[in-house]
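Q: How do we represent a protein-ligand complex in a form that can be generated token by token?
A: Start from the inputs.
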Amino acid sequence: MWTIYQHHKGMHYLALGKGLHSESMEPHTIYLALYDNPRGGLWVRPSGMFLDNGGPRGSKRFTALARLRTLSFNEADSVLPFGFDAWGEGRSLPDFVKSYATNKNHLRGQRFVLETLEGATLATVNTLRFAPEITGLAWLSTHPEHRKQGHATLLMHSVMALFRHEQPNMSFVLHSEIGIRFFERFGFEKAPVECQHFEKSVAMIAEADNGPSDFESVLSEFF
Ligand SMILES: CC(C)(COP(=O)(O)OP(=O)(O)OC[C@H]1O[C@@H](n2cnc3c(N)ncnc32)[C@H](O)[C@@H]1OP(=O)(O)O)[C@@H](O)C(=O)NCCC(=O)NCCS
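Then emit the structure tokens for the protein with coenzyme A bound:
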């Protein structure tokens, strides 16, 4: 589980953990920028300073906003209803949830959720590691009562930053029915025409510098 913070200047960061300074043994917080910072993505700061009131007029330097965590397979049923309005296709909610039990991408994916600090789930996305440097993102959905507050945006930035922290050349693929505009903020572009297999949903790619190029076979395996 990771905590997401907002710096007093507005930018978001995900705390990866703590480490000790090798000489002074002072605890330091290690944190990842959730935006494209040309100076670098990974930062370290003495933990006392991370948590102090170094913001304007004695306000907090970093404010904890939300938590990110992976979801165990048994918990998935609790977040599947978030996408019911978009993907229900006239089914009842129980039938819709049941339909995932045989969905191969659902079964092999690793879901992430964004939660409040108190543990209420806000948004979810599934991740599918198709290749060491290609991850599929699927079923992005926000609890209907918590939409338009930036939760899906924060979740996408967090998950993509975490995967790129682990693998800097990571590219992402996804299919979506809501068009490309929302996904452009994460660096997605429409995939080439040979990757487009569906009328209603658009295949998109967020390609890393020096990333792989064989997206067509991955996308046909995805759907
Ligand atoms: C799409 C969805 C995940 C957005 O979640 P959210 O937490 O409200 O998103 P954010 O607050 O971070 O961003 C809001 C933006 O989402 C985009 N958006 C939301 N619904 C959209 C839709 N049906 N079509 C196009 N864009 C949409 C808009 O750009 C919106 O920007 P705005 O605030 O300027 O209007 C949410 O509406 C949802 O769960 N929908 C049902 C599932 C779905 O359609 N998922 C699509 C991805 S596969």
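Residues 82-83, 86, 123, 140-142, 147-153, 176, 178-179, 181-182 surround coenzyme A (CB under 6 Å). The mean pLDDT is 94.
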